Amino acid sequence: MTLDARTFFSADYGEARAKFLSAAADRGLEHTAYLNPHAKGPKGEDLTIDVAVLGPADARAGLLVISGTHGVEGYAGSGAQIGWLRSTRNANWPAGVKLVLVHALNPFGFAWNRRVNEENVDLNRNFVDHAAPYPQNKGYDVLKSAIVPPDMKPETLAAADHALRSYGKEHGVFALQEAISQGQYAHLDGMYFGGTREQWSVGTILHIVRREFGRAERVGIVDIHTGLGSYGHGEIITEDEASDPRYARSKRWWGDVRSTQSGESVSAHVLGSIDSGLIAGLPHAEVTAGGLEFGTYPTLEVFQALRADNWLHTLGDPRGPDARGIKAAIRKAFYPDLDDWKEMVWKRSEQVLSQAVEALANG
Ligand SMILES: [Zn+2]
Description:
The protein contains 12 helices and 8 strands. It is an alpha/beta fold. It has an 8-stranded mixed β-sheet with strand order 1-2-4-3-5-8-6-7, sandwiched between helices. The longest helix has 24 residues, at about 340-360.
């Protein structure tokens, strides 16, 4: 039977959740739902992180696959998880390896088509020590009014874009990307805000990994993202220095791996990332972690969609007349709802997950 990859993907969070639970149930996976106590969806619906587990409870090796760390990016990761459940067979699963699928780590962002959560926090910047002084991001401070303009008038946006281009000309394009996206802890209404306390999703995923991988000696992590890189291309991103054994190991698993430390990745090096947090949360395990990042549309288009969405939810009215166009643009920027893109996301995800399972089974 050939499976149609298009059927793995969903039109919204509710459909994605239902498809994920049905695929997990058909395979007999153990399911746990974690209810978000702080927020509801746009129709007043409950929002949950759903976890499905296959394999022995005390496995010494395990694979964690996460979707929706960045809410709206969850369409891709959810499709990959559902495709993986639908296209593999329990009989072929290696006996000593545990599979843990975490669906919609940021269910608020998925349901509302936002990259951030209900507190405007980027979860992939929230894994920092909140008792210590927060890291500074001076570039962001300089650019803050270009990143969060007071309104969406064309002349305001033109001036903001001019300020960003000037910064890029003076300091380089990479420095501009870093200033905007590395994370900041000073502007609650800003973009790439890392939060001023541990977020519910962060506490929940740390609980999940300790619970599921407490006995594991080797853990693979694939966290699926979208929005950076060329259309449909899936880059494996690590944060490890080239000299780190984890970097060499991830290259053995996956071949072409790009480190944010060396400037070879589509991503800037970021503060308080989920990979760093989960690696620290599993001190007894040898962790091999990669972000799987799928390109969508040009960076400027993605940034402008994000900036408008940030404005809508912090200064504008998410239920007002501006909402429809802004929400459609951000959804498209992170989820090209097109057959060729879905096919590329599925094929690449299948490859990356298969490589991880093989490495865990044979290691
Ligand atoms: Zn992301």
